[in-house]
Amino acid sequence: MRYSPALSRLIEAFRRLPGVGPKSAQRMAFHVLERDREGGNELGAALTAAVSLVGHCQRCRMLTDTDCCPICTNSSRDASQICVVESPADVIAVEQSGSFRGRYFVLMGHLSPLDGIGPAQLGIERLEAWLDEGGVAELILATNPTVEGDATAHFLADIARRRGVAASRIAHGVPVGGELEYVDGGTLAHALSGRHVL
Amino acid sequence: MSNRVRVQGEPAFLLHHRPFRDSSRILDFYTPDQGRITVFAHGARGGKSGWAALLRPFSELLISYTGSSDGGTLSAAESKGLPVNLPPERLLSGFYLNELLLKLSPRADPHPELYEIYATTIASLASADHESRSLRLFEKRLLDALGYGVDYSRVETTGATVRPEAYYYVRPERGVECETTRTGQPHVYSGAHLLALASEVLDEPGCLAAARELLAHALAGPLEGRALGSRAVARELRALRNGS
Known about the structure:
heterodimer, A: 198 residues, alpha/beta, four-stranded parallel sheet, 8 helices, globular, B: 244 residues, five-stranded mixed beta barrel, three-stranded antiparallel sheet
């Protein structure tokens, strides 16, 4: 079955999205054309606007369509704590936990020497400049608990310590509600080494 | 075309991984009996598969996969022995070893002795052993195992034994070429340092520095102009540390 050129283009465009295979892309395209042409126009306009307007926050590198993101401009947030994460999705995840009221710095990746990703690609100069301004007491390193995330956290902790800023790493271990029996040895070893006194 | 194979319970070290589509990964492993292979791991990025915690570099695994001789699809993975956690300050050295193996070992060409050399080096990096010494020994043994090794204890042209008190001109791809009095020149090394490298006794800082330079030149040939990302990142990090 061959689609018309415009329909093919739409299906191919939907397939660029993560998690969308050929069948889902076809369903989306038919839905827009058969049932929701107005929604389709809105989708097209929103995509065009977002792609041209959304950039990175000058301070924390979070995605935003203003110079500074709403978190960086919010004066009620604790400016003495910066939580360093790998991606904008991680900022949302930490925000949804409701347990952090400080600011963020988004690396947009992690150190990956084999792929040639080093400090320059992670915007480390910007983070250093932020720490040099003063007023930051703690850098919370919330990079992923992977080997690359650990390497990134290690060198960021070094940068913080040289400036007299405390560096802490988020805890890794047994998931809440989990059972020890089903936790792998590596995770359990982390959980044991990171135990705290009650 | 390569035959379809089913490999079960093969010891392996993960060298590199990259994301593929939403939840999968492409993994490069080094194994003793299959050499360097590339496999797909479906669902390896999600927490549910349990593979995310397991598929980490530097820990020895037992993997099963189906596919061709140089890779395929991962069907099972489990930890072989206790997981190894390199100290964070040595992770870059670990990445360097992995990059050397990725760039220098041919795909699907088994070198069981090279696997042993890698495993020994990882164990020594995870212990309190001297870091630079472990790296230099790995570089030398890797070059030897891949057929690029040279005998640093003999003069290539005459067959004479290298004397510790003399100085020699060394061409990385040919070996020790001739004795010279022009010390301090490029590619000129002390006989004592060459003998130390030949016998793999790298205890003195002077020996280590000479070995580092000599082996970097020796690696440049097989690397054929390809830059090492891990070396570049290590340099950048050093510059950052010294600048701040």
